[in-house]
Amino acid sequence: xxxxxxxxxxxxxxxxxxxxxxxxxxxxxxxxxxxxxxxxxxxxxxxxxxxxxxxxxxxxxxxxxxxxxxxxxxxxxxxxxxxxxxxxxxxxxxxxxxxxxxxxxxxxxxxxxxxxxxxxxxxxxxxxxxxxxxxxxxxxxxxxxxxxxxxxxxxxxxxxxxxxxxxxxxxxxxxxxxxxxxxxxxxxxxxxxxxxxxxxxxxxxxxxxxxxxxxxxxxxxxxxxxxxxxxxxxxxxxxxxxxxxxxxxxxxxxxxxxxxxxxxxxxxxxxxxxxxxxxxxxxxxxxxxxxxxxxxxxxxxxxxxxxxxxxxxxxxxxxxxxxxxxxxxxxx
Length: 332
What we know:
By secondary structure, the protein is α/β, with parallel strands linked by helices. It is 49% helix and 12% strand. The strands form three sheets. Strands 4-5-8-9-10-11 form a six-stranded parallel sheet. The chain has a three-stranded parallel sheet with strand order 1-2-3. Strand 6 (149-150) and strand 7 (153-154) form a beta hairpin. It starts with 5 loop residues before the first strand and ends with a helix. The relative contact order is 0.14.
């Protein structure tokens, strides 16, 4: 293989952020909502699962050894989505994003030739979002990680226009990674909150960006959707049909919804070689990037093998394995 292998979906755990919010008003309510959404069985598994992975999530030396074992040369490292804390009031939200940005940058600085980082923005306070993005870029981060929505706001909300404009202007990467699903207790058994909820949230968030015209107004946005974009890429034909058949569906965006897939980026973490082949077909081999969800249990321990199982043409395999991400990261 030629060129580096680059994993764009890898996480870091930031104890500094959790220490900052511990005991603050709103945290208990947020945790209770998370508990209702996930259910007791999932919570009983989540704690031990994370504890087993603490070293890989926090210790750069352990991370690099794990990357070597996977055959991964570089990672784009984003904070654990549990650090979003979109419940926080403005003063706390500013402390959270500053702490997260600085801690992530410090983690990555220990291996600058192999690790690039992403920061956070408080989507619950759109008026702080541009400042937060600029702060992340000032730390040397490649962009920021965002969830699929904030309380009371979808990504189509006009209040986010300044954020999209600034991200487009700076070339910042926006990594779309959901945390929690608004289907709530309907998914509180059998880990449906993640297995179904995450793909649903990805599909809904991307649909808001497409149908609202955000991608028309900001064609230079560099959005990477985690989990292969969820259900949307493999069911985009239904969106195309609605856009063509109904005036209410087609009012917000200028082109067929499927055409916007080629303006977005997607990680390869779909857990099915046939789905990955379809993702490459509909989005283009130049728009899919290797992703593992390192080091969580819903990721893959061997992302290169998972990619190879899709039996892509060699040029497409190399593009997804690392060439696309290397080119994307060189532009910032």
